[in-house]
Amino acid sequence: MTAETAAPSTRFDWSTWLRRRGWTAGVWVLLLLMIVWYSVLIPKFGGFQIASISKNSLPLVYLAIGQAVIVIAGGIDLSVGAMLILSNSIAAQLMFEQPFAVTLAIAVLVILIGAVINGVVGWIITVSRVPDIVVTLATSFILSGAALLVLPSPGGGTSEGFRAMFTGSTTGSGSNFWPSLVAIAIPMTLAAWWMKNTRTGLSLYATGSSPIAAYLSGVPTRRAKIVSYAVGGGFSALAGLSALAITGSGESRAATGSLFTLRSVAAIVLGGVALTGGIGSVVGAAAAGIILFTLSPILSAMGIDPNTAQVVQGVLIVVVMMVAGIIELRRQRAG
């Protein structure tokens, strides 16, 4: 055997890469194409439009990441939207007329509250063995009611510095898009790294793929599920904080939470996360969240009636979910 034949091949295996990350890469390419398309449809495209897309998609991006973590671990959370409005309401009340340093401390507290509440929900699911969809649906009603108790009508506020941290402007509007892009990139990158490079993160994939096999292999499946819900709750709270930074006031309408929950599920499916668990990436889910937001201005720029635009968005989501289901079925048959 020669040295050439003995040496391991250093050639990049594109087929393996595409099989593992092709869908995620495709979603980001689709996002880029949609932004280019949008720039062609409108008379002027620049920093203001990029800032508008990036900052206004923040709440859905955070919800999609949180939902993706939970679904990858084999669960699903129908209360992420309710957690968003509860966190938004609490923060709006506590941050009103407070200096920047205090609002930052409150933000950390709100995220911790969201993580603890959702962690308890995950514990209830693992102990009671009641299906996730039932427990989280009931939780959504509880959280929505609590949000109304905290903030009966729109109001409250936050510091200018806190708004600038997410939107790049003390007023929530402008052409500085870098802060909102950073606000997307940092949590997304940290979540993706944690899930792919830590034992706890990898245990979520193992639990979602096959809970029984994971348990027999020594994976703490109950803890993995509780952790996934806690992380999802933290990201849902972060979504509520970003919504406060964008609008400058709190909003506790249950309808808003329900809409965000449905969109978060659509985003993870579009982002390549299998609803059966164990497959997907938060990176794809984040891109899908931006795509779902970008659909609205694109359809508006095309002159499509808002009511018709809702139908178009719904049809596109259904088609994507059907395609994802077919791909998952083929993957299971191949396995």
Describe this entry's structure for a reader:
The protein has 335 residues and is mostly helical. The protein has one domain. It has 15 helices and no strands. It has helices at residues 3-6, 14-41, 47-56, 58-72, 80-95, 100-128, 132-150, 160-167, 178-197, 199-209, 211-216, 221-247, 254-270, 282-301, 306-334. Helix 9 (178-197) packs across helix 10 (199-209). The mean pLDDT is 88.
Total domains = 1
Helix content: over 70%
| Unreliable residue stretches | none
The count of DSSP E runs of length 2 or more, i.e. the number of strands, is 0
Q: What general form does the structure show?
A: globular
Discrete helix count: 15
Describe the SSE topology.
Blueprint lengths: L2 H4 L7 H28 L5 H10 L1 H15 L7 H16 L4 H29 L3 H19 L9 H8 L10 H20 L1 H11 L1 H6 L4 H27 L6 H17 L11 H20 L4 H29 L1
Helix pairs in contact: 2-14, 4-9, 4-10, 4-12, 4-13, 4-14, 5-6, 5-7, 5-12, 5-13, 6-7, 6-12, 8-9, 8-12, 9-10, 10-12, 13-14, 14-15
Structural descriptors:
335 residues; mainly alpha; 15 helices; 77% helix; 0% strand
Concise synopsis of the structure shown:
The chain is an all-alpha fold. It is 77% helix and 0% strand.
